[in-house]
Amino acid sequence: MSTDGRVIHEDVLEETVRLLAAAEQESIPVRALGGMAVVLHVGELLHPAFRREIRDLDLATPKRAQRKVDDFLVAQGYTPNGRFNAVHGARRLLFYDEPNGRQIDVFVGTFAMCHEIPLMERLTLEPLTLPLAELLMTKLQIVKLNRKDEFDLYSLLLTHEIGADDNDTINAERISSLCARDWGLYRTFQLNLGRLLDDIGLPDLGDDERVLICARIGALQEAIEAAPKTTKWKVRARVGDRVRWYEDPDEIDSADNRVE
Fold first, then answer.
1. What does the domain layout of the chain look like in residue ranges?
2. Which of 35, 40, 94, 191 has the most CB atoms around its CB within 10 Å?
3. Cα separation of 151 and 196, whole Å?
4. ∠ at Cα 185 (42, 38), nearest 5°?
5. What is the CA radius of gyration of the chain?
6. Beta carbons within 8 Å of 171's beta carbon, 6+ residues apart
7. Yes or no: is domain 12-251 CATH 3.30.460.40?
């Protein structure tokens, strides 16, 4: 419970659902991303091999709603990081659930970490979370991919087909079109999809499940490679790995920058 008496649920899933429902009731456009969004999307199909602890919440909102989201989260009992929000609030906001030791990270207008993923034109395609393609990309863009990030990616790939639309499908056309314009994004996705194939030897995963995930990774790789590349992409590709192609979030600020 917050200091003003408003109930903040101790259970992070219950709290995420409560917040999204409250925002919907007040016509505030926010959507979940990160690990909790994966749980919401996968639901009962979440494989035991990919279950993990999720501490914090991650949300996205349009620039036009930034002030409303700020006021909304304060009214819900969250404490803003005043200094961080004053400096970075045009693109990102931080809030804290002090009783439960949790953080809410709000991406405003775009998702920018190791790479920038545009969100606004597709933000409200799903009722609770970002679309599957964007959920996948916010994880694939992490240069220093760790095990929990891999688990989230495997969860999405195991439970959703690769296709050309957003009807409970991972939209490969959306992903490949962004990669075709940005060699750096392409390069990080290329490396991380390879890592997912290399690291899939999980003892609790059945052979059929492993084969299905690998096939979907392969389908996504094929779509990315097949997309016609821009002239800018081709020029940057000639430079390759000799010049760093990603941002280091730890250089932006000292807050916890990894999306849960």
1. 12-251
2. 35
3. 9
4. 10
5. 18
6. 131, 132, 133, 163, 164, 165
7. yes
